[in-house]
Amino acid sequence: MLYILFRGIIKGTPRVITLVGMILFMFGLCPAVLLAGQEDIFNAISIIFYSVALLAFILALFKYLIWRRSGLIRSLPVLQLDHVTGKETRHRALLGVRETTTYAKTQPVVFTPPASGSQRISVICRTCQQEMVFQVDSFQQIKKKRLRAVVIWGGGLLLSIILGIISTYAGQTKPMALWVYLVWYSHAILFFCSAGGILMLFAYIGAKTVRLYPGHRVRFPEKNELAILYNAPGAAINNQ
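Given the sequence above, the corresponding structure tokens read:
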């Protein structure tokens, strides 16, 4: 798990690095981590996660500014559609992990948002001619969804932190009352739900998969793929 996160920091796009930073920050706030440090929000374990998360955010900002200056950051949603041709799994004995490499024929998918609401768009795989279906939101719909997610999940995360603080101070007396356990479990459940919602918010770009045939995958494009897309004259927009 940690290997995947650190690999995402080193090789990921600005959005992926930001997602990894958010995951590490959430680990720092994780009830299990806080419990290991006697619920201290600034215990040694959590500070390590906070520090690495901060480095990830700085790197993401640095990459974002470079990519934007290079013309690789545009306003239209872009995804990469892969037709998977094979996978290879290697065991890295030194790191104690298994690494899977996916081989695929890939194509960029640039979406043009509708004027209002949401619209389903069909995209044909160039390799197998199968039809994939995506749902694309308008810019107005994107703003509404992001604002709603910030209010709901941000408020939920704030409430979970407050419940965690209450359970921490109330739990100092022994034996602990039943309501203290209920508050702590409510804090943990609300935290994980809110953390998941916030991570989904960062992964949301205004387009999502509705129907994807087996043997295909959708991901964020890498730097070289964006460079080929935007620098190629007459780059096609897959909007059918």
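The first strand starts at residue 78 and ends at 92. Try to locate this feature in the token string yourself.
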